[in-house]
Specification:
Nucleotidyltransferase, domain 5, five-stranded mixed sheet, 2 domains, 290 residues, 12 strands, globular, alpha/beta, 38% helix, binds zinc ion
């Protein structure tokens, strides 16, 4: 099983690639729409690399899902995918096994197979939202329905801000990019992106700095909790906010170390923006028995 297709459905962009031994031989990136556009892109990359059909297709998506059926459930940020059976749709079109998994867990698979290749680590996506995937003893921890590793929804402040998941005070509601942007609007009266807020914090502006420090403190606390639970060798970060890692990383690591006895290595993904795509392509090798 080596002629692999990876599909990384993101909130904004979808990436499709033909992957051979960890190399992306052909790729398409386009604004996220639905199954039709993914089928077209898969057909295009297959034509480009000259494969009649792939050995397997792996798909990662940021959505609640039924992994056994290959069905995306209610996904507010992916309106074209609600109730879509991804596995049936792609199997019918390309006549090969198809696997669907949570995007952050797919990224963890990518790091395991093609990235740092550690055996015990936590992968964290830090962008608009916060996702995570856990690898322990060289195996992905999927949980009962494939949603394990959701570090973004660890409740840290029971009276904190409301999270998109409906609970209060989740890590994502304090440190996620969307939450930071919301806080900026509340406290500064202007809608800033998380990246803009970081730039203001760098300049030492008090409110942005306080918001960023609070976010890094919360991230460090969540990492300390996970570290104590799993004793990972590494914690690996990816996602848009890691573009500001020189500023955020030291704050996060300092906060974690203040709250944990353990000292896992903290690194950025080795696979850059392709971590989700490569992880989806390798998903067939790490799919759980459900
Ligand atoms: Zn939540």
């Amino acid at each position: 099983m080596e002629r692999l297709i990876g599909v990384d459905i993101g909130g904004t962009r979808t990436r499709v690639g033909a992957v051979w031994e960890g190399q992306i031989l052909a790729r398409r990136t386009f604004p996220t729409r639905g199954l039709v556009e993914v089928k077209e892109a898969v057909a295009e990359v297959l034509r480009e690399v000259g494969w009649e059909r792939p050995d397997a297709i792996g798909v990662g998506a940021p959505a609640p899902m039924d992994m056994r059926q290959g069905l995306i459930l209610n996904a507010p940020n992916l309106p074209h995918w609600n109730g879509v059976n991804v596995v049936d749709g792609l199997k019918e079109a390309f006549h090969c096994p198809v696997f669907l998994g949570n995007d952050a867990n797919c990224a963890a698979v990518g790091e395991l197979v093609y990235g740092w290749k550690a055996k015990d680590f936590l992968y964290v996506t830090w962008s608009t939202g916060i996702g995570g995937g856990v690898v322990s003893g060289g195996r992905v921890i999927w949980g009962v329905t494939g949603q394990a590793g959701e570090i973004g929804h660890i409740p840290l402040r029971p009276e904190g801000p409301r999270c998109r998941c409906g609970k209060k005070g989740c890590l994502e509601a304090i440190a996620g990019g969307a939450a930071l942007s919301d806080r900026a609007l509340e406290r500064l009266g202007e809608r800033l992106s998380a990246a803009e807020l970081v730039e203001q914090a760098r300049k030492g502006k008090p409110i942005p700095l306080a918001l960023i420090d609070e976010a890094c403190q919360a991230m460090g606390q969540a990492l300390a909790i996970v570290a104590e639970l799993l004793e990972p060798e590494m914690i690996i970060f990816g996602g848009g906010l890691t573009n500001s890692w020189d500023f955020l990383g030291p704050k996060v690591v300092e906060a974690m170390r203040a709250m944990s006895r353990l000292r896992p290595r903290v690194e950025l993904t080795r696979l850059g923006d392709d971590v989700g795509l490569l992880g989806a392509a390798a998903l067939p090798f790490h799919f759980p028995e459900l």
